[in-house]
Design brief:
Order of helices and strands: EEEHEHHEHEE
Distance between the termini: 30 Å
Shape: globular
Structural class: alpha/beta
Largest sheet: 7 strands, mixed
Helix content: 10-25%
Low-confidence stretches: 4-8
Number of helices: 4
Number of strands: 7
């Protein structure tokens, strides 16, 4: 079921332009990534994932590619990416080798809040723990949930068998969109 079922789909030229990345240069952290994916549309999607892998101002990665494909099908103009943890790693379990403060990143909360400004849809998409320490994971979800208070947060598809919102890499086919209950 498409997000806007019944609406005639527009034929859009495929576009991918990174309009913001914090920091712009590839580094230890990525706090924020914004990508314009269509001209002639105005809607903004904010996606909250687990932690950044390799996507940057210079290149995409499989998760970002999957999310952008979904956003194009549902007629969004831009996608903003933020994460529970800002420390980069393609292997989430490696986050455990760092202190909690290092995992989160000192600027992360401010960038999450900024990503909500003007967002038409906010999607929780952090998925299962994938090796991240469960106490740290639950603590961070609660902290981010407090940042999201008053925001209508949604998720795509049914929750995982562990009760988390489906990760963006797992957005296959036409999944239903539903309101995600925040854990405060």
């Amino acid at each position: 079921m498409a997000l806007f079922a019944g609406r005639k789909r527009m034929q859009l030229k495929k576009l991918r332009e990174v309009t913001a990345c914090a920091p712009w240069a590839y580094g230890r952290y990525r706090y924020f990534l914004e990508v314009r994916i269509a001209d002639g549309l105005t809607r903004t999607l904010t996606v909250i994932l687990k932690n950044p892998s390799t996507a940057s101002a210079e290149r995409s990665d499989p998760t970002v590619g999957k999310v952008e494909a979904w956003a194009r099908r549902n007629e969004f103009c831009r996608v903003r990416y933020v994460n529970l943890f800002a420390l980069r790693s393609p292997y989430p379990q490696e986050l455990n080798t760092h202190s909690y403060r290092v995992m989160v990143g000192r600027e992360n909360d401010a960038w999450i809040e900024r990503s909500l400004e003007g967002a038409d849809v906010v999607l929780a998409a952090w998925g299962n723990l994938n090796g991240v320490d469960s106490k740290k994971y639950e603590k961070r979800i609660a902290e981010v949930s407090r940042l999201l208070e008053g925001t209508c947060v949604r998720a795509l598809g049914s929750p995982t068998k562990h009760g988390y919102p489906r990760h963006g890499l797992m957005w296959n086919g036409e999944l239903p969109l539903f309101e995600w209950p925040l854990t405060l």
